[in-house]
Fold:
Amino acid sequence: MMNRRKFIKVAGAITGAAAAPAIISSAFGAGHSKTQKIGCLFSSSGAMANVEGRLNSVVDMAVAELNAAGGVLGKTIETVITDPASDWPLYAQNGRQLLLQEKCKALFGCWTSVSRKSVLPVVEQNDALLYYPLHFEGEENSDSVVYMNSPPASSVLPALEYMMSEDGGSASRFYMVGSDYVWPRTINKINKGYFSSLGISEESYKETYVPFGFSNFQTIINDIRDFADQPGGPPIIILTVVGSSIPAFFKEIINQGILASDIPILGLDVLEADLEGLDTTSLVGHLNCWAYLQNVESEANTQIKSNWASFVKSNGLPYKPDVMIDPMVSAYDGVHMWAKAVEKAGTFEVPAVKEAFDGITFNCPSGYEISLGSENNYVARGVFIGSVNENQAFDILWQSDDTPKPVPFSPYA
Structure:
């Protein structure tokens, strides 16, 4: 049974992950006039911990930058970090404590959509903000959430369009395998609507779902082989499993000797960190799509990668210093965009901060200037399609010309 004790640790300018956690404690009082708290809701244990936990540390790094530059509105920013343990109700419980007991004005957190939906009523009922760093299924538009990443219209559909093009292999059949929750099911519902709009028949796609933490993919990959052997054109795998299931899926792909030239994989949640520990030689050519890839060439990207390597080393963090992933960048961007909105509003009070969103921009490490507009709380970002290389990373195959206007609700859903 999952441990439901709620541990929270407090970070000032710099916090090491190895520091002993305290139970809801703070070096300052909750209302200390020289500080302002923000809260983190990223799991460092459970099925999602293999990548999610490092987002706590990158928020710490962003806060350290703010404090080194004088803080926000003259106050030192203090990070209160929790471990929801990949347990969806615990995200809501920890979030409520961060808001009501720790007096945080903004939360940065959640990975899966089910964790976000668990926290959503908490921030809405308590006049707070959640900065959510993952690309996701859309179909939501709360003024209490800043959606830092891309809805399907800006990421998934361009990737599918690429896969169906001659450059992408002219895919015409699709095997969709995902974890059994709202994000994969909604993404695949949108995919099927998109296929239908193109005249692609139901016989040309198949979908299956597995529980969180699922690791035995042998039978499913055998079924994918059977699907690929059927007539009707080139097949691809659309992968929406999450957490520890991602490396487990790729390990079975390696075991069965399936190459990208046989059946390409479009891994919609696959990140550089998911490839750690894998021999990617036989995975070369499988694809992903995100709003950031660590191989992008930009001055801001060079800087954040250098800063992260130094931060990992100086704080003894248990992460590879040379791996930077999209949700880390999105969480980092979120902290700086929140600070900009607070400075523009002249107050930490949430209603005024929301009013200040329109026109907020940030020079993202992706090389794009990302922005918030007046129509919704979705950040306009660029998008990349990457191809696995031999060095546990992704080469950039394609990127958008600009930052497409976010479309929260898909016409294909």
About this structure: Residues 342 and 353 are 5 Å apart (CA to CA). Residues 326-345 form the longest helix (20 residues). The radius of gyration is 21 Å. DSSP finds eleven helices and 15 strands in the chain.
